[in-house]
């Protein structure tokens, strides 16, 4: 990463509904901060567009917000969650949302 002034990194955990809801105002406020912004973590937002097993309501909402607020959704290359029940397939829970970041990559490498 080069050519950045301020870089804002935010770790996110959004509990499953109905506890917390993905609010547009939160993302608008964070992406309005001066500088490049990276939000990363578990948004409980799933979409087949970023290789999840299915799309949920938060995922649909996130896709609309990405278009409206103009940020990128960057998924990992491999699943980030492996259920302890073998009947469930591994899935992606953690993604990154980026705005104004001069970074050339198509996904996040998992550690």
Automatic annotation (TrEMBL):
| Record bears the keyword Transferase | yes
The answer to keyword Transferase applying to this record is yes
> What residues does the Endonuclease/exonuclease/phosphatase domain cover?
9-105
| Ranges annotated as spanning the membrane | none
Q: Which domain of life is it from?
A: Eukaryota
Alphabetical keyword list: Nucleotidyltransferase, RNA-directed DNA polymerase, Transferase
In Gene Ontology terms, what is one molecular function of this protein? RNA-directed DNA polymerase activity
The name this protein carries in UniProt is: RNA-directed DNA polymerase from mobile element jockey
Which organism is this protein's natural source?
Eumeta variegata (Bagworm moth)
């Amino acid at each position: 990463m080069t050519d950045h002034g301020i870089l804002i990194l935010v770790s996110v955990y959004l509990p499953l509904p109905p506890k917390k809801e993905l609010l547009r105002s939160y993302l608008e406020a964070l992406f309005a901060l001066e500088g490049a912004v990276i939000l990363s973590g578990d948004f409980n937002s799933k979409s087949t567009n970023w290789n999840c097993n299915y799309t949920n309501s938060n995922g649909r909402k996130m896709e609309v917000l990405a278009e409206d607020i103009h940020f990128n959704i960057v998924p990992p290359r491999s699943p980030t969650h492996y259920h302890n029940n073998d009947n469930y397939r591994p899935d992606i829970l953690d993604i990154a949302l980026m705005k104004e970041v001069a970074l050339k990559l198509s996904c996040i490498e998992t550690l």
